[in-house]
Amino acid sequence: MSEEAFDAIIVGAGLAGCVAAYVLAKEGADVLVIERGNFAGSKNMTGGRLYAHSLEKIIPGFAKEAPLERKVTKEKITFLTDDTGVTLDYHNGRAQTSVQESYTVLRGDFDQWLMGKAEEVGAQFITGIRVDELITKDGKVVGVRADGDELMAKSVILAEGVNPVLAEKLGMVKPKVNADVMAVGVKELIELPKEVIQDRFNLSDNEGAAWLFAGSPSNGLMGGGFIYTNKTSISLGIVCGLHDIGSSDKTVPQMLEDFKNHSMIKPLIEGGKLLEYSGHVVPEAGFNMVPKLVDDGVLITGDAAGFCLNIGYTVRGMDLAIASGEAAAKAVLAARAAGDFSAEGLSLYQTLLEDSFLMKDLKLYKKLPAFMETPRIFNQYPKMVADIMESLFTVDGSASQPLRKTIMKHCKEVGYMNLLKDGIKGVTSI
Amino acid sequence: MTETVNVDVKLGVNKFYVDEGHPHIILKDNPNMNEYRKLVNACPAGLYKLEEDGSIRFDSAGCLECGTCKFLCGDTILEKWEYPRGTFGIEYRYG
How far is A3 from chain B (nearest CA, A)? Predict the structure, then answer.
């Protein structure tokens, strides 16, 4: 190990960490990534879909070489009750530019590939080592302590994930983030032959589906279900808000099991084999949760900074992590050029984020997390839509009602005022 | 709607390196049951068990290291929450 201090030590070889290492090393900076897992990605999981734009700008044409699963061309959103499903299905057969594309991914392969890219340009990685604490001197972060060793750095980039224990110890992130705004995700990776997946989801070769479900998957709590098709497997899971979890009559693993056994889902995974069972916390507060991002000698990126956007019809985290890793690296490069690694010297990080889609989008949707806590979205509306559909499509010989009357009847059950209120609130928060 | 889920079977397909004798999560003695029930419901790995006789059982082996219990009860009924030492714990082969 070098006696000289590194320009940057990066904690965590996820997307933010690997991207930051790549950008720094490419410009000749002396950078070390420390990962507690045995390989990059070994502690990481995703739903998982990656929007390509932010990585495409850093590594143009990455999709040609990266281990991606399928390019998403089908989007589905379903309102699910225990025994019904009403789906909006969008097939996109139009050509997309490389920044518009999105892909299903599995993080084991993907993160290792990204780490390889950073290594190619000179970044150093050590895996299987947990960083135990940050070393501070006169209030400034100057290195890390790991496994009894002390490693010194001019800056430390925290890319430690959604549970940022180091940032908490430093006091930059509040120790207990309000559980109201956190959600837990669980996923099963289910193996199926390629042809079976393509038949069941109506996909051409290499094309994939992204499918979100609102309603019964999260047992009426904030959250929902998801399915992403990979090459020879399906990522199936649920996300559930932790706000009211104590009073739920179902456990989170049971929610996933019931979702899998739903009459609409079961045929899709019939005959599949469980490859892996994974869990992850999702930071859902958006802009309202963003902590102090920069201090003397330290920057916080990715999930650790709460960079996640749940807009209901899409959930994004990975493209934000990538953009934040790049911005952090650029700030460290600027600090290195100026020889000033203080909060002031690293402040380009904040500026770059403010000027990018990341903060702009987080700000745009800042009212949404509060709106998403409206329980009606996850229990009454899915039922209302299902009841309307049932009335429309059930013919049993009884005299029909005018369509308007049929629909209004079901709307009345939720309450016109609630519909109006939620409609206005919903529209103004997106 | 469906049978009670057996999470242990699902965890059985995962790859774990258990750090024997060094639990990375320690529960306080006689935890508040309202708090404990949150963890029974929320833990993706179902590690916080409630037995039929009302007793509790917890083992941090099988932990997916998501942090849910820390967010919910880190300052109430958890004595300790840290990541497993380097190389130990869950190893996702797919992610």
Answer: 23
Tokens of A100: 């518009």
Closest-CA distance of chain A to residue B29, Å: 20
Q: pTM here?
A: 0.95
Amino acid at A418: N
- Is a pLDDT exceeding 50 seen at residue A401? yes
Q: How far apart are CA A386 and CA A391, in angstroms?
A: 9
Taking the mean position of all CA atoms in its chain, how far away is CA A390? 34
Q: What share of chain A is helix, strand, coil (3-state, %, to 5)?
A: 40, 25, 35
Give the start-to-end residue ranges of the domains of chain B: 14-88
**Contact between chains at A45 and B95 (C-beta distance less than 8 A):** yes
State the architecture of B14-88 in CATH terms.
Answer: 2-Layer Sandwich (3.30)
* A-chain residues near B86 (CB < 8 A): 36, 128-130, 146-147
Q: Are A177 and A142 in contact (CB under 8 A)?
A: no
Q: List, for residues A135-153, the tens digit of each pLDDT value.
A: 999 999 999 999 999 999 9
Q: Cβ separation of A41 and B65 shorter than 8 Å?
A: no
pLDDT tens-digit series, residues A222-254: 889 999 999 999 999 999 999 889 999 999 999
- pLDDT one-digit tens code per residue, B4-61: 999 999 999 999 999 999 999 999 999 999 999 999 999 999 999 999 999 999 999 9
The angle formed by the CA atoms of residues A236, A374 and B37, to the nearest 5 degrees, is 65
Please tell me if residue A38 touches chain B, with a CB cutoff of 8 Å.
Answer: yes
B11 touches chain A (CB under 8 A): yes
Q: Which residues of B touch A108 (CB under 8 A)?
A: 92-95
Domains in chain A: ranges and CATH: 6-67+106-179+286-355 (3.50.50.60), 183-283 (no CATH), 375-428 (no CATH)
Using alpha carbons, select from A230, A238, A235 the residue that is nearest to residue A203: A230
Interface check for B72 against chain A (CB to CB < 8 A): the answer is yes
Q: Does B54 touch chain A (CB under 8 A)?
A: no
**Strand A156-158's sheet: what is its strand order?**
A124-127, A31-35, A8-11, A156-158, A298-300, A294-295
CA distance B47 to A38: 24
Cβ pairs A/B, distance under 8 A: 150
